Amino acid sequence: MTTVTAVGTYLPPWGSARGRVLGPDEDAVTLAVAAARAALEQATTAGSATAPDVRRVVFVTRELPLLVGGNAAALLAGIGLPDDVPVVEQVGGGPAVFDTLGGAEAGTLVIGVDAAESGPVGAAAALVAAGDGAGVGVELVGRVVRSLPVLSRANGGGARDYSDARLERERGVGVAIERLDLTDKPVVVAGLPAKQARALCAGVPPTLPTTGASAALFAVAALAEVGGGGLVLAVEQGSATALRVDGVPAVRRDEPALLAPEKLTRTPGPDIAISLAAYERAFDAKLRWDAGACDACGTLALPPRRRCLNCGSEDGWSLTPLPRTGEVYTVVTVHVPVPGLPTPYSLAIVQLDGVDVRALVKVTGAPAGTVQIGDRGRLVLRRVAVRSGIPDYGYALYPDAATAADAGEGAVR
Amino acid sequence: MRRVAVVGAGMTAFGEHFGLGIKELLPMAVSEMAAHVDKGLNRDDIQAAWFGELTTSDGFPTGILADTCGLLDIPVTRVENACATGNDAVRNATYAVASGAFDVVLVVGADKVRESSARSTFWEWAGLTRDMAWDYPLGLVAPANFALHVARYLHESPATKEHLAMVAVKNHKHALPNPKAQLRYEITVEQALNAPVVVAPFNLYDCTPQSDGAAALLLVSEDVVERYTDRPVWVRGVGLGLDRVMHQHKKDMTTFPPTVKASKAAYAMAGIGPEDIDVAEVHDCFTGVELISYEDLGFAEKFGAYKLIENGVTSIGGAKPVNPSGGLKAKGHPPGATGVAQCVELFEQLRGEAANQVDGARTALAHNIGGPTAVSAVTILSSQRG
Ligand SMILES: [Zn+2]
């Protein structure tokens, strides 16, 4: 039995009634960071005033951005966790997320992400209480692991769809559920189309935005709509895992209102070269959203620099977290084609709240050209560019106007 | 320091010279300059050269200048200072003559922008002038670099996009009689406002074209000036100014502090003020930059630039004509050549020989602003020895 302190969810704004899709500046890491931050913010408000105790991160997805090179450091920096927290990068779907959650050690942050180009995409994270923290109890009921790769994607190969829905239903999900030998009907099922899920459930289950790894945790979050705990099932082709959740967890949703994807122009041209030396020097400040604070006078500099902007001291500086909200000082929109970057895009200089620091960032989550001088927003981790095949992460301005439309209960403002 | 005079000036036409490489453009400009020295020039008289080139078309710039122009026995120094390269080359050569080290020196500026595809040029320049980790991957292409300033300027000042369009209309009109100009056609305010967006708030006609070209000047000391001409143009002041490199570190983006610093230095050296300038070539890589520069150069009060363009003050026939050549906007902008070519235009203006002559011009100013809006160079020329 483990205790879930909080669940956080994230959906990109872009998409259609069929589901959300990635923005041009998003991947599995940026999605994971957004959901994880929502979960940790919820855990902070729900529990003690101190930051949640995260001892381990398990990142489950089938769309890891870097197979060689790794995503763990970017994930920890984006979430704001220390660099000595172990990270498991796991390839898997909904059942794998429940396997992890059901047997998780105290202080584990489990993140499930769906980030396939074809969508639907989304991310959700659950924090397992460290010690005897508050939350809802979660218990593994059973699992069955079988193979029926109706959808497949081999290492280095393209995706294939065997395209036989009845086979999948009867010999995949059907047999898996039969083998689980459940004593009662589930209240939510992750990994199936809405109609199929409804047929298996007691009552009318909430519709989930995704079907992969994140769907399992979206299902746990959806217990608020069910109105109580119960049996929750995650299925994936021939496999399934069942969890019993004994209540409604605290949930924070970062789920902006739906926007039609922008028509973007992608221009072929020379690769945007990367200097890995420069990348490594900038990494901590750039991904953790830290300034260099002058040891002599405290003046903040972004990026950190040897010689203080104010007092001229060269004696040293220390990384200090920057505010994550601010106001647009100036903004422009690039329409001309730029090789390697989807156009159009807006660039803004943002005056951060409460400090004498401005940042030059791209605008995210809103159509290019819609942000004006004086608009407010928050700074979020995004994939700024892909340079020589390497994701280059940094911060972007998410305008408040873009999220305000869906600022319902629990939404991140 | 000794007084320094310009006694010869020449340039290639600016344009898309697909058929001419840097090795053709350089000797063309130098030979045109030499042919226009009133009393003739023996090339052996040239004691040193300064060469402004932003990029490195066909490689090693100083060697290419020396090799292609027959100057193998003199020292040649490359100057690279972003879009302020041309006037900074003039500045360095001026000091070399003023100091007494040399009596006769050559200043050349050139660039071959159209050696790469039109699509990739802005991006290649961005790679030269941006922080590799923090700014480059954001796609801060050259027009965006200036648009960040102009967007804020339009927000704070009474100027509007119509005023930007008026600058484009004026400079296109000025370029009409200039045989060296790249864009010799008139446009209307409506055309400018309705043109495709490049980087908002800039439309197509707010932007300089991509240009190839070269320009050359001969600078001599007061001790030898009479050997070359009886009508010299004096270099009365030079100045260079810098600023913080990253936009996020510039406190007030409605001004270019490098221009304020460079012009202050040049005015002080010349012992004159902005009111004494009869004609100016101002860096109008983007229309809004010309407006902001009116204020930074002291031609207008803060946020008063729109009145000058609205009232025709800076048109030919106005009280302070700006960019009679057509400016970067219509004459063209091969970065290394631009500042030198501004001085070529002003040399002709001050001798009463310009294609688009400003009546009675006696004192003139040339201005560049460039890089990530972090460097400016200003040169003040006059027919008056001072
Ligand atoms: Zn300091």
Automatic annotation (TrEMBL), chain A:
Residues 321-381 form the ChsH2 C-terminal OB-fold domain. It comes from the Bacteria. Transmembrane segments: none annotated. InterPro entries: ChsH2_C (IPR002878), NA-bd_OB-fold (IPR012340), Thioester_dehydratase-like (IPR052513), Thiolase-like (IPR016039). One of its GO terms (molecular function) is acyltransferase activity. This is Putative nucleic-acid-binding protein containing a Zn-ribbon. It comes from Frankia torreyi. The lineage of its organism: Bacteria, Bacillati, Actinomycetota, Actinomycetes, Frankiales.
Automatic annotation (TrEMBL), chain B:
Pfam families: Thiolase_C_1, Thiolase_N. One of its GO terms (molecular function) is acetyl-CoA C-acetyltransferase activity. The keyword Endoplasmic reticulum does not apply. Residues 4-223 form the Thiolase N-terminal domain. Its EC number is 2.3.1.9. CDD domains: SCP-x_thiolase (cd00829). Keywords: Acyltransferase, Transferase. It comes from the Bacteria. Residues 244-382 form the Thiolase C-terminal domain. The keyword Nucleotide-binding does not apply. This is Acetyl-CoA acetyltransferase. The lineage of its organism: Bacteria, Bacillati, Actinomycetota, Actinomycetes, Frankiales.
